[in-house]
Amino acid sequence: MTSPSPAAVFDALARSLAARDWDAAAELYAPNVVVINRFDPDGPTTKTGRDAVREFFSGLGGRLDSLTIQRPDLTPGADEETLTAEFTLAASAAGGTVRFTLPAVFVMRVRDGQIIESHDYIGPRQA
């Protein structure tokens, strides 16, 4: 059986986030995943393990009414495991009264249908 491609895994992530299915989104990450976000507003962060990713997504669910990935531009890497995804995160909060977007780039490594490493670059919030 063939594992899903990195692009298919990214598409599944986008669908899970839009559906607010935080558990399904977390399950796309390997148990020992490393997610690095050097530009987090609170300073560089590293999340290690699926449980840390699940906790992060669950925290988003408590603060956001919606979260969607818009205009994804997916570029395969030099090897079959790597994908660069450039896109816009669109979100709403406070009952839809607050809406904003965030430019983002994820450089992901996917093995056996799971994200094993991701370098997430998420830009400043835009109204």
Oligomer state of the chains in this structure: single chain
Q: What structural class should be given to the helix and strand makeup?
A: alpha+beta
Q: CATH class, please? A: Alpha Beta
- Percent of sequence in beta strands: over 45%
Largest sheet: 6 strands, mixed
Distance between the termini: 44 Å
Rg, nearest Å: 14 Å
The level of helicity is 25-40%
How confident overall, as mean pLDDT? 94
Query: Quick one: how many beta strands?
Result: 6
The second-level CATH architecture is Roll
Q: Could you tell me the CATH topology label.
A: Nuclear Transport Factor 2, Chain: A
Order of helices and strands: HHEEHEEEE
How many domains comprise the coordinates? 1
Q: Globular, elongated, flat, extended or rod-shaped: what is the shape? A: globular
SSE layout and pairing:
Blueprint (H helix, E strand, L loop, with lengths): L5 H13 L3 H6 L1 E9 L7 E4 L1 H14 L2 E11 L5 E12 L4 E14 L2 E9 L5
Parallel strand pairs: 1-6
Antiparallel strand pairs: 1-2, 3-4, 4-5, 5-6
Features of the shown structure:
3 helices; alpha+beta; 6 strands; Nuclear Transport Factor 2, Chain: A
Summarize this structure briefly.
The protein is α+β, with helices and mostly antiparallel strands and 127 residues long.
